[in-house]
Each structure stands twice: as C-alpha cells, then as structure tokens.
Design a protein that fits this description.
By secondary structure, the chain is an alpha+beta fold. The protein has helices spanning about 15-25, 65-75, and strands at about 10, 30-35, 35-45, 45-55, 60, 80, 85, 85-95, 95-105. Helix 1 (about 15-25) runs antiparallel to helix 2 (about 65-75).
Length: about 110
C-alpha cells in the first residue's frame, strides 16, 4: 500500500498527471537506477516521479512498469486537491532474483521535503 509520507517532498497534482503521461509515452523504454540511489524518471514544474533502489546492484525495468504504482500513490496520497506525495515499495523479479525498489512522488529532488 502507498505510504503518504512527505519524505520526497510535494508534487503538484496537474504536474503528476503530466509526469505519468510521460511515463506512458516512454513505456517501452528502459528505466534504470544505480545501486543505492534514486533516479528522477519524470519531472515537470518542480514535481517528479522517482525510481529508488536501495539494493547493492543497479536495476532496470520498462518505464511502463512504474505507471500503476505512481497512479496508486496519486490516488491514495493527496493534500487539499493541490499536491500529491508519498511512496510505494515494490518488488521486481529479474531471472531468479528479486529486487525491492521504491516509486515516489515528490519535489524536484528526492530529498526536497
């Protein structure tokens, strides 16, 4: 379930919608994130979607994989119909290995709270 936390900052509702549309536009492109870091996979007007990896190796997935988790956060974590915020932990299986990752909605940088 999404966690409504301000740890990634606040994203404007209209810009979150645009960021999700961007992920849909590039759904077959590979989104990657290095080990122990966050990648900003979509950004508009100081609002972002982050793909965070707390594992010890880099992970990659189709950008389209990130759409539903982002929508889930958007519908669960809204502040006064103006801001979206929060994160959702997910699991990605590559071969026989499972990786945990986080999708977050927030500000321009992962620590912009």
């Amino acid at each position: 379930d999404p966690r409504c936390s301000l740890s990634f900052g606040l994203a404007y509702v209209t810009d979150t919608k645009a960021n999700i549309r961007h992920l849909d536009d590039v759904q077959n492109v590979t989104c990657s994130v290095p080990a122990d870091s966050c990648a900003r996979v979509s950004n508009q007007n100081l609002s972002s979607i982050f793909f965070c990896n707390y594992e010890s190796t880099a992970i990659s997935t189709k950008c389209g994989t990130l759409i539903e988790p982002a929508k889930s956060i958007q519908s669960a974590c809204r502040l006064r119909d103006f801001y979206d915020y929060g994160y959702l932990e997910q699991t990605l299986t590559q071969g026989t290995v499972e990786y945990k990752y986080t999708i977050a909605l927030g500000g321009e940088f992962p620590n912009s709270a």
